[in-house]
Amino acid sequence: MTDVLEPRAIGRDLLRRDGGLKVRGTAVYADETPVPEGAGPPAYCRVVTSTVARGRIVDLDTTAAEALDGVQRVLTHATAEHLASTEDRELAVLQDAEVGFRGQIVAAVLADSDEIAREAAGLVEVRYAAEATNAELRAELRADRTDLYTPEKVNAGHETDTATGNMDDALALAPVTLERTYRTPMQHNNPMEPHATSALWTGTHLTLWDSTQSVHRVRDTVVQVFGLAPEQVRVVCPYVGGGFGSKGTPHANVVTAALAARALPGRLVRFALTRQEMFALAGHRTPTIQRLQLAAERDGTLRGIAIDVVEQTSKVKEFAEQTGVPTRTMYAAPNRRTTHRLAALDVPVPSWMRAPGECPGMFGPEVALDELAVELGIDPVELRIRNEPEVDPETGRPFSSRNLVACLRAGAERFGWADRDPEPGTRRVDGWWVGTGVAASVYPTIRMTKSTATVRREGDRYVGRIGAADLGTGAYTVLPQILADALGVDEARVDVLLGDTDLPEASVAGGSSGTTTWGSALVEAAREFRDEFGDDPREGDEAAADVPPNPAEQEYVMSAFGAQFAEVRVHADTGEVRVPRLYGVFACGRIVNPRTARSQLLGGMTMGLGMALHEQSLLDPRTGAVVNHDLAEYHVPANADVADLQAHWLDEDDPYVNPMGSKGVGEIGIVGTAAAVANAAWHATGVRVRDLPITLDKVLG
Amino acid sequence: MDPELTLTVDGATHTTTCDTRTSLLDLLRRRLGITSPKKGCDHGQCGACTVLVDGRRVLSCLTLAVTRDGAEVVTAAGIDGPLPQAFQEADGFQCGYCTPGQVCSAAGVLDEHARGWPSVVTADLTDTPALDDAEIAERMSGNLCRCGAYKGIREAVRTAAGAATR
């Protein structure tokens, strides 16, 4: 048990502290960093990217570009500095003539204006020797590829494969079995702020104003890649225009900005990816192929559950999405199997996107459960309740708290599920087929092991310091609430400074771990502070602390759960799909700030709606290019796509997770949404869509 | 020779020269250091660069600066009144990057509605439509928000319009 804080500021519905700046547009993002005193006029960087998926540069002519008035440098693999470490191939920018994917940076132009840099980039001529193998084979993910391989581990250190009991026997013996294949497409994070860096090299020190979810991770990466000492590199990021994972790990653009700055000492170099470039250089979510097998008794009791996942990675660097992991924890069954196989393709490197693993990995299972419910004639809410495990099914460890059943019941009540007629394709209103569907949500409660915070008395205020990030999550508002309760003072007297490597080292804003991790460090620092200085500290008194270990993490499985209910309308003539109602009920520990937490849950559900109806990156297997690489063709939800959207939560007291009692709310909202919508679309039309997104051609088919 | 132009931005007059290829967005951000309007796509697809030019909302990334000599530009930094507070109260944003464009667009919506302009979802074209959820959603759909703050954005616009809540 941890010592849970008495909530005073925690739980209050406070306005965002950075709201005034954001609504006026005066919060400063990376590309807007003012030119520092003493620096020369800013320079602008534009890049040239490869037009072949795999091959070698045989000629690169920069003469015309360099002749243009206002061009300062053209960096290529022949002219760029040699990096100290090229171990991470994604970050080995301009180091050799090899091309590993279409859209890779092959030259960088630095000029006195953005317009000149862009014109010059267009004048760089590149000839490639494209590799003459079967192009289609290289970029297309299929489950029958002969070159699939088994990664050593999947993301977050999870086992690649797991098995309990004997799934084959379960399938042979059970009275009811179901085997289906589900697909989720390649997707892109597309934060509204393109990945951007303003960079300044003074000759000895490098400062990067970078749009990132972790200033310390960027610093550590740049230190390693360039062979610098940590004290030579500072990374600053007060505001982030969204990330959703794509800014959780530094990509090639950060290295390019640093290369550019080092080529022009004393000048602030600005480098922002274009929206189009982001589709190759800022990471993507892998497409997944999920084969689900269920074995059940006639009363719905699962005898077996299995998921076999096939997904892609890049030949440049491995990224193994943990898609099968949620199946390990969701439902009770004595026989179980999860596997992951990868195809290494000539594509850009996949990366983190909101709820990696859980988000794609809860589509197949939650639609399969719905299909089983139909086959058995059991209500899908009831089927889930009947398979609720008492302990974590794979490890046998107890849950610190698990309220999936309560979420299902509360959601059903709010949504008006009780009167539902299970027959599909029978309700037609004003030319629209109407249906409803349900799916479960899950996301692990993650606390990073390493973060440090300090607390200092300054005037009549208390100032917390931690190099964390607020990408719209509310950290600037929520962390002072936590620190105030830990100090036992009024929240209005507390500040918490974020977003700078000059502050104590913080973990990445990812894995829904921010509040839990940074909050734990701040609470520990506050305890040290009070122990040392009592209730009447003097000016400048300061204490520091790391995230303390939590032995309960070894004893308990910690996760947030939820249930989502969707109403779908499908136009009988056009097949247009709308979602007039989408309700989520979540059990995610104690809510620190209802206003910002609700926004996070609604935001996750909105992105889940996009996954259900709109989002897919169309990779041309001949060229390795994402052909719909902008926001006109890669559709994300717009205002009118979102109708009656509601997020609710249950009061959940979990004494084991951390002193705040929080479980994280940034990702669970996207988990299960697409399955709920797909299940409702089936109920509306009788057409079962097993590959996302649910477009009109599929429901008409 | 780069041509000279004069703009009024949020009440302040600026006379400057610019490359004829420069968008109004880049002129504001790069040349004048006015970074309230944001660049999300540079192709008129996301709405983050929305500003008011002579009272009308425009996408500044699709507007060549030299075509707007003498114009009066208003960015979110120049918008007072109930809108900015309503966005905060409704938590109509998270990361804040699309927000200045949303605020400018909302100001445009309020003005267009006050003039009686219909939208594609307006049922009765002979009367001024009520600014209900569907009207606001339709009129605000040119401004993407990846954080998914649409519900709060609608609430903010509704509050600012003084319309009764649903």
Automatic annotation (TrEMBL), chain A:
From which lineage does this chain's organism come?
A: Bacteria, Bacillati, Actinomycetota, Actinomycetes, Pseudonocardiales
Q: Does the keyword Oxidoreductase apply?
A: yes
Indicate the transmembrane segments per the record.
none
- Domain annotation Aldehyde oxidase/xanthine dehydrogenase a/b hammerhead: ranges: 24-132
Where does this protein come from, organism-wise?
A: Pseudonocardia oroxyli
Keywords of this protein's UniProt record, alphabetized? Molybdenum, Oxidoreductase
SUPFAM superfamilies, alphabetized: CO dehydrogenase molybdoprotein N-domain-like, Molybdenum cofactor-binding domain
Q: Does the keyword Protease apply?
A: no
List the Gene Ontology MF annotations in alphabetical order.
iron ion binding; oxidoreductase activity
What is the designated name of this protein? Xanthine dehydrogenase YagR molybdenum-binding subunit
UniProtKB/TrEMBL annotation, chain B:
The protein's annotated pathway: Alkaloid degradation; nicotine degradation
Which part of the chain is the 2Fe-2S ferredoxin-type domain?
3-79
A single Gene Ontology molecular function, please? Answer: oxidoreductase activity, acting on the aldehyde or oxo group of donors
Q: Which residues form a coiled coil?
A: none
Keywords from the UniProt entry: 2Fe-2S, Iron, Iron-sulfur, Metal-binding, Oxidoreductase
In Swiss-Prot or TrEMBL terms, this protein is called Xanthine dehydrogenase YagT iron-sulfur-binding subunit
